[in-house]
Structures are given as structure tokens and as C-alpha cells.
Design goal:
Largest sheet: 7 strands, mixed
CATH superfamily: Vaccinia Virus protein VP39
Number of strands: 9
Shape: globular
CATH class: Alpha Beta
Strand order of the largest sheet: 5-4-3-6-7-9-8
Radius of gyration: 16 Å
Number of domains: 1
Number of helices: 5
Structural class: alpha/beta
CATH topology: Rossmann fold
Distance between the termini: 41 Å
Strand content: 25-35%
Oligomer: single chain
CATH architecture: 3-Layer(aba) Sandwich
Order of helices and strands: EEHEHEHEEHEHEE
């Protein structure tokens, strides 16, 4: 946590600075990366919400996408920019400091084919920027805000692609999706020893 780390992941080099979620240390990131690598994203406009080190944007760019990577942590935004540069995707990845969609409100025609999000699915108030990657508020208010606002940034036929975990109440999450006006389906299930991960596709009803 107190060091700047440089490491290889999925064939790319990443710099991860203190307070930034390290994708190499968490199975969830590797599950998401594996799924995204299976996609053809040629010509797609992608929003990588809660981007962290920028790993989703780097992988999506390698599959042909143009990516906007948002994070509330300014250190993460620095990492995204550095990692796009050192992996030769500066032209494909734009890093923006933003509390969910706030900084995108002033960007004309900010509509995306896919919005990727590994949401903070543990309840509780974060006390620092690192905890923002895990804690989404006492009643997961961050997820509710995301679901409500995301509809304004989806292109026609656009969709959400969410990474969820058995550590959360999935029935509650599916209810939140329905209440916010989305139909959803499970695209992929990855069972690990202590946790199961779900890739969820969601479109407006």
C-alpha cells in the first residue's frame, strides 16, 4: 500500500500507486479481464467506471475499443494516464477524475456502447480513497446512484456490464436493477474456492 508497484498483468505493464486498487492482488479483476479479453470491441465506445489503475480500459483498448476511464481518486487518474502511455494506448484511453458521472455531464455526446463497472459491493462508509473501491455506502448508495445516472450515458442498444460477487446479496442487487429500470441476465459465472463471481449484462427495460 505504501509503495509504487510495477508489474505485468495479461501481457501488459501496470504502475500502481498507493491508494489505488491493485488488479493483480484481487481475483475479481482477473475474472473481469478474462471476460473482456474474449470480446470483440472493435469500434466500441467504452466507459470504464471506477477504473483504478486502468486495467479494464487497457484490455478493452487492446480489443479495439475507445475508452473513457473514470475514477474519483486523483491518484488513480494519474495511474490510468501513465499506464495508457506505457502500453501505447494513450490515443485510445482518456482518463477523467469523476465521482461516478459528475464530470461527464459537461462532455457533449458522452454516450457509450458498454459501461464496465466492478462496483463497491460491501456496505459501509469509506474512510479513504482505497476503501472507495470496496465500500459503497451504508445501503450501497453508490450502486443506486450509478444505476440511475448510467441510463443517460448509454448509446442506443448500449448496455451495462457489471462484475458482482457472492459476497453481496445478489437478490437485492437484482431488485435494484429492476427498480432502476433494467433487464438483466447472467453472462458468465466463475466459481473460486471462497467466492463466486458473476458477469451481469443489463439493458434498459
Amino acid at each position: 500500500m505504501g509503495k509504487v508497484i510495477r508489474q505485468k498483468l495479461a501481457g501488459f505493464t501496470f504502475t500502481v500507486r498507493p491508494t489505488v486498487f491493485n488488479p493483480a492482488d484481487f481475483i475479481s479483476s482477473k475474472v473481469f479481464i478474462s471476460y473482456i479479453k474474449s470480446l470483440d470491441l472493435s469500434g466500441k465506445k467504452i466507459l470504464d467506471m471506477g477504473s483504478g489503475s486502468g486495467v479494464v480500459s487497457i484490455i478493452a483498448s487492446s480489443k479495439g475499443a475507445s475508452c473513457t476511464a473514470c475514477d474519483i481518486n486523483p491518484v488513480a487518474v494519474r495511474c490510468i494516464t501513465e499506464n495508457a502511455l506505457q502500453n501505447n494506448f494513450s490515443a485510445e484511453v482518456t482518463a477523467i477524475e469523476s465521482d461516478l458521472f459528475e464530470s461527464l455531464q459537461n462532455i457533449n455526446r458522452a454516450k457509450f456502447d458498454i459501461i464496465f463497472f466492478n462496483p463497491p459491493y460491501y456496505k459501509g462508509n469509506p474512510t479513504n480513497n482505497f476503501e472507495r473501491a470496496f465500500k459503497g455506502g451504508p445501503n450501497l448508495e453508490v450502486i443506486d446512484r450509478f444505476l440511475v445516472d448510467a441510463k443517460n450515458f448509454l448509446a442506443p442498444n448500449g448496455r451495462l456490464c457489471l462484475l458482482l460477487s457472492s459476497d453481496m446479496d445478489l437478490d437485492d442487487m437484482f431488485t435494484r436493477l429492476k427498480t432502476a429500470g433494467y433487464d438483466h441476465k447472467i453472462l458468465h459465472i466463475n466459481k473460486k474456492t471462497f467466492e463466486t463471481f458473476y458477469i451481469i449484462d443489463a439493458v434498459t427495460s
